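Below: protein 1.
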Amino acid sequence: MDEEETPRTPRALIVDDAEGMRAYMATLFETRGFDVDTCDDGGRALSLLENGAAPDLILLDIMMPGTGGLAALARIRSSWPEVPVLMVSVVGKASTIVQAMQLGATDYLTKPFEEAELDAALDRLGLHSSGLAGSSSRGRGVTDPSQTVWVSSAMREIRSVIEQIGDTDVTVLIQGESGAGKEIVAREVHAVSNRVKGPFVKVNCAALPTDLLESELFGYEKGAFTGANGRKQGKFELANGGTIFLDEIGEMCPLLQAKLLQVLQDSEFTRLGGHREVHVDVRVVCATNRGLLDMVAAGDFREDLYFRLNVVAIDIPPLRERREELPLLVETFLARYAVLYERPHTGLSQRLIEAMNAHDFPGNIRELENMIKRVVVLENEDSVLAELSRPRTNRSERRAELDAMLDEIEENAGELPLREVGRLFAQEVEREAIEHMLNLTGWNRKQAASRLGISYKTLLQKIRTCAVEVGG
């Protein structure tokens, strides 16, 4: 009697020169049921392929020493065209993604990416974790963090609004600080709607240059640009029958604002390089951490588009105003990362709990999550306690420092060259920007460098020259 054939475990090849990133991505893929091979440059990846490696997916970093990602991609597309290649790039290098797509990349992620973005990419490739062997055994029974935010009175009010509009298709504008949970709210809008069986498609408008964002949203026809070897559906078409979530809508350029307005008015658009109108049935949910009304007043955002988007406005308060969520969020993240990184699930000390209760969390839920992740991975609280105990300079104090510097310059008029004045002020502004981004990323220097659009080495240099107090 023939034995039932066991499904083959999918295999991923991860190519990245940063050891920490390789290990992190390997963990993500392993928890999704993949066997994983890793290497640190494009040349080694090509050698593996030439010697018989047969991955179902290649995750390829763009910026690497030696044989870089673009050169490796060109070789892979020439010799192994059937293998899907998922490119990875930092936000500051987003323009290179255009070239990668022209060379034949299947899809892309921008660093730092959320796990949900990886899952969405795998979904588009037909390799989603829900269908993979072994992925359900780790993490089973762990509460989803997106279900823990609804315990506070502020979030319960938001949930009530979401339920009221569940059977409608009105556009929703979600506003709040970075890391406050805007995507969680957007996904809940979709989950309680009559479109729940349709797709939920997320697009980060800040992560892509204008030319790529247009083709990403609306697709393109064959021959629309060099490398467009066939028709590609855009995110609006992929979201047909469901919800499209436009994150960081305030970063969209005026040209695309006009095209988005057309979609909202007529439910139609044309693909890049095309002439035929494409009709879609899509609900639009947008999010921003910027003041769109101020942008309208400044002429940076279309007023007619603003009113089209702002049918139902949801303002998410920061985590410091929702402190009743902290205990459950902490427990959820502890359980989640203990399973993910195979560490013991231990609670937090009373000292750390008190320090967190006194902390304002400028990076909101994302900052808290990064802190808990660090505690679990390192199996100690020292770095987080050091960060929380460090006195923080608020913006008003920093403004006072700059005013004092101006007074000093005025008293010593003529003694300090203008170039030196500019250097001192630039250094103060850089210090504030770096400290803010480090706080948002839980003092993950590599993530902070990526978001600031500078190299890791440059960030370390600026931490020293700007006298940033190290907290992790």
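Below: protein 2.
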Amino acid sequence: MKFQYAFILGNHPVISQAEIIALLPHAHILCSTNETLFIELSTDLPSDFLNGLGGTIKIARIESETKMINNQIFELILNKREEKQHTRNHKKREKIQIRKIDFGISWYGSKNRKLALRNGLEFKKYLKSKGIKSRLVTSQGKTLSSVVVEKNHLVSDGIEFIIIENGHDFYSGYTIAIQNFESYSLRDYGRPARDDRSGMLPPKVAQMLINLTGTDKNRILLDPFCGSGTILQEALLLGYEKIIGADKDIVAIENTKKNLVWLSTHFLPSYKQTHSDTQKESHRVKAIMPELIESPIENLNKYIKGASVHCIVFEGFLGSPNITYRQLPGTVAELTALYKSTFHICAQLLVANGIIACALPAWRFHNTFTFLPMNTLLPKNLQLQNRVNQTPRKSFIYARPMQTVCREIFILKKRAYATDGIVSPCNRRKMNAEDSIAIITKKDKTSNSDAAVW
């Protein structure tokens, strides 16, 4: 049996598609547009799959492929949806009698903003002719936002019809999941320790970075620039169990602890069920806290055993958010030195075939991007990975309109059997994945400026 789904993508659809493909490598891609990705699977998606996707707004189950859309198509989809709900609720499979329904229509792929409204009104009249009361949920555009769908309970109690126009074909179905916008907002703005100076990585972007690695959740994940702990919190929520965070700033480490303790009481069910609010904070920290290290990136190999980490995910220092064009050469030179050292250490810590997903700064002035010179930053055993629809630099750009300091996202892989500059070629050995975090307890003791333009 085959299952067809449409993923409604966020504001950075290229990154969203790459994230989905990384998590569903065996999916058959049927088609894609600037707004959607249409795939076929041999197994049904888990009901909570969308909770682990940072770049997808909705997921729809596709039930029909036709050359036109009419009331009979809407009725067919409605009946199939009702049948699945009855089966899921273990009710008798008798003839379905719909007496009242709230519904909305989102139409993707067409520039005609009135198509959804016109078809919605026609279907409402059709339902009335059959004695079925209905309420049509509308918005200003041709699609309903996840906020509108949630506030009107269209997934749980009504239905949102999804129409995807692709050339002369129409794929139609209904929404089965929407992004939990309230949860993302709380994880971003509701944390007790939110430091604007240490970066403003949104939880959605952190989730996408982690997912782009495609790493199994029983492997070891490291964030060497953990800041206030956004990547660490999202890794915990995604189910990673072996997590290391590091930062040179003790304030950042303390903020991470506060935020992860807060996370445990709001978002981790297992903690809520087994811990009372009256327990001491030390017990709370021990229950969920990843290994945290106060150290600059260049000294991390004093704390973490070489070739022991399976994936490294980070957003490093992006420089001043108020940078001027005159300051750009100096900033590029400074960050080039920082990230050259960063990737050298990362290569030492990664196992063979280990993955890095990272966000580095890119600067936009006068509609032209300036990038860090990646060819001078990477040691020979780290290779940039190809993904669909990347830039010529094998990267993704994450940027808002008119934003000066943007993010350039890379995925890198450590070559198997490659030397990292410390192990000599004659003593080269296979770096096997280890199942435990190897932390060294020893105490910490305390360029090229040419930029690529695209």
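The radius of gyration is 25 Å.
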